[in-house]
Design goal:
Length: 181
């Protein structure tokens, strides 16, 4: 999987362009060596699942950073997806908080709800999670859910709950580096 996540890169088995890893404050990014398809202006939708408000805040920060860079953005909770915005989006970003025990068993929260999102066939998708201590395989599992919905997952990023602003900025910079090559 092309990932911008904390920890080691895990291959997805997906064919695609070769990647180059780069490290940042909150994660790892693998940027395709070959240019990614892109159209500007681009429309994006950010869909989030939040419990305490951290993931919602991160989603809104991500949306704001995308808007500052000229991307049309709609931010919505997984419980109230804007279907027209989703249909119009070239890029779908899905975020969840990390659920599980402190050091093991981590997974995307409310994964069943995310697995019921509309099909995303032909859409590029990036995932993110918020976390307190460890992400475990949260990004891998969230990516698999989105692939199960037909999305072309281009990466993921873990944002520590006490670094939401900086993590959101870093995520958007890395994400746009991939989609706007």
């Amino acid at each position: 999987m092309d990932e911008f996540r904390h920890g080691a890169t895990v291959p997805s088995g997906r064919s695609g362009p070769p990647t180059v890893a780069g490290r940042g404050g909150g994660g790892i990014l693998q940027t395709p060596i070959l240019p990614a398809r892109s159209r500007w202006p681009m429309n994006a939708v950010v869909i989030y699942e939040s419990l305490t408000g951290n993931t919602e805040k991160a989603a809104r920060l991500i949306g704001g950073q995308l808007e500052l860079r000229g991307v049309g953005v709609t931010v919505c909770p997984a419980t109230d997806v804007n279907f027209q915005a989703l249909a119009d989006a070239e890029l779908v970003i899905v975020g969840s908080w990390t659920d599980g025990l402190f050091l093991f068993g981590q997974k995307p929260a409310r994964a069943g709800r995310l697995a019921k999102l509309p099909y995303l066939t032909g859409k590029r998708c990036a995932v993110f999670c918020t976390y307190a201590l460890e992400t475990g395989k949260t990004l891998d599992k969230l990516s698999e859910i989105m692939r199960g919905r037909g999305a072309d997952v281009i990466g993921g990023y873990a944002i520590k709950r006490n670094e939401l602003e900086d993590g959101s900025i870093e995520f958007v910079e890395r994400l746009l580096g991939v989609v706007s090559v």
